[in-house]
Amino acid sequence: MRYFVTVGEELHFGRAARRLHLSQPPLSRQIKALEEELGVSLLERSQRRVVLTAAGAAYLREARQILAQVTHATAVARRAAREDLGELSVGFVSVADYNLLPEVLRAFRERHPGIRVTLREATTDVQTRELLEERIDAGFVMSPLREPTLEVRPLLQEPLVLALPQTHRLGRGSGALALERLAEEPFILFPRYNAPGLYDTIIIACQEAGFLPRVEQEAVQMQTIISLVSAGLGVSLIPESLRNLGRRGVRYRSTARPTPRTEIALAWRKGNDAPVLRQFLEVSTEVAARYRTAGGGDA
């Protein structure tokens, strides 16, 4: 196939043979053998010129693509075998974008500049499915995550805080607020299947305050929940790091009594011992430890 592509590009057996570092007769025999194998004529030959047939032109296009893919596959395999080169696909929940993720990516790029990281924002349930389908290599998820074929490493815990419309009667203060004072308020939450662990943590916090939240609006992404709060459609309990979102029209207040803590974890498939994944796990663990030491969360 490579011989034919060279002849098809040169349209001259002599020049093609020189490019391939061959003598002309063996090259002619190889092309003839290819035509016999395919059962079609690829070239029209005369003493003055060589011309591609319609079949030859079509085969040339396909052969070029196949050879390019072979070259790419070889490069990918070699990169995967080296610890300083490769590719990694990482999923993340939106909460991680406001705490660990930016610093993990920065540190990983500095330490392993030859590894290309592709990112995909997705909820915990979507990431779980994509990990099992081998569409991503690792994911920042909300814990707990109970999937026996996945490894899960806890990275960061943080408290829940209240998000209230700025015009809300309880949104004007700055101190801690008793959660039970929101018993009659409409809540904005995400569907439980998106992140069962975080959802249950919020429900438990409300139950411990003596009420079950009246959920009147649902949204998948945390940014959307904050937007709906700013529009005055309800209140919400969110991980503390989302204070960094800084949405206008929203006030954040801590709760008077400690709430159950949310947890960000890193998940990956059991048995995946790729060097690039191992390096990403190491960097993520180190960054999480520094983040906790700086007061950004708990272990």
Which regions are unreliable across 5 or more consecutive residues at pLDDT < 50? none
The major β-sheet equals: 5 strands, mixed
Give the end-to-end Cα distance, rounded to a whole number of Å. 58 Å
Specify the CATH architecture of the largest domain: 3-Layer(aba) Sandwich
Arithmetic mean of pLDDT: 90
Write the CATH fold name of the largest domain.
Answer: D-Maltodextrin-Binding Protein, domain 2
Extended strand count: 12
What's the order of the H and E elements?
Answer: HHHEEHEHEHEEEEHEHEEEH
Strand content: 15-25%
The first-level CATH class of the largest domain is given as Alpha Beta
Helix content: 40-55%
What is the molecular shape?
Answer: elongated
CATH superfamily of the largest domain: Periplasmic binding protein-like II
- The radius of gyration is 30 Å
> Order of strands side by side in the largest beta sheet?
4-3-5-12-6
Structural class: alpha/beta
Number of helices: 9
| Overall structural domain count | 3
What features would you describe in this structure?
This protein is α/β, with parallel strands linked by helices. The protein is 40% helix and 22% strand. It has 9 helices and 12 strands. It has helices at 2-10, 13-20, 24-38, 54-81, 101-111, 124-132, 196-208, 222-230, 275-293, and strands at residues 43-45, 50-52, 86-92, 115-121, 138-143, 150-158, 160-165, 186-189, 214-218, 236-239, 250-253, 262-269. Helix 5 (101-111) links the parallel strand 3 (86-92) and strand 4. It starts with a helix and ends in a 6-residue tail after the last helix.
